[in-house]
What does this fold into?
Amino acid sequence: MTAHRIVELPDVALACRESGRPGGPPLVLLHALGERAADWDVVLPGLAPHHHVHALDLRGHGDSGRPGRYGLELMRDDVLGFLDALGLDRVDLAGHSMGGVVAYLLAQEHPGRIGRLVLEDVPAPHPRPAAPVAAAPDGPVDFDWAVVQAVKRQIDTPEPVWLERMAAITAPTLVVAGGPASHVPQDRIAEMAERIPDCQVVTIGAGHLVHRARPAEFVAAVAPFLDPAGPR
It folds into this structure.
């Protein structure tokens, strides 16, 4: 059963879908650019059956607020504010693509708050050639189009400290790479993983949308890593 709640933060309201075992270890899920919390539904039953899961709509997405101010650090601070509002001192954290960037920024800034970290086909913080942003679609979308411009700009030209601070991540980390079919450079993902002290990499050759394209393989890789009965 999934419950829906809105958590009011000083700068934005965050929508959350809660599921899983009440009282279980908390797991927070962060979606990719242009997605929303429901994107995780295909893997949710098998992903963390022992956890109490909080799948968020990040600012500007889904049912969360659209304050007009967007950025990856703002999203990081929103997630921290969400944890504080719910009294969640330490959580497992998983993020896909943009959500993975938000996840590793939080793990760098507040390492003691993260138990285990899962990064799914996350762009490494290396500068890349800027491509033009597509025009806003004519029809309605589940996100504020201004998010695309803000996030793309930061991913194209990331802060150098983001790469330098990978060594500050203390959580055991699983990096799930999408393989050569992904548009994300896989060698950069591997280099990023090498900078994280306790990190393992698994490649599932599904392209960028790993958990959606191959949900069973994604669950087989991630669920044992998140198992609270496993070694910590």
About this structure: The beta strands are 3-8, 13-20, 26-30, 52-57, 91-96, 114-120, 173-177, 199-203. The mean pLDDT is 95. DSSP finds eight helices and eight strands in the chain.
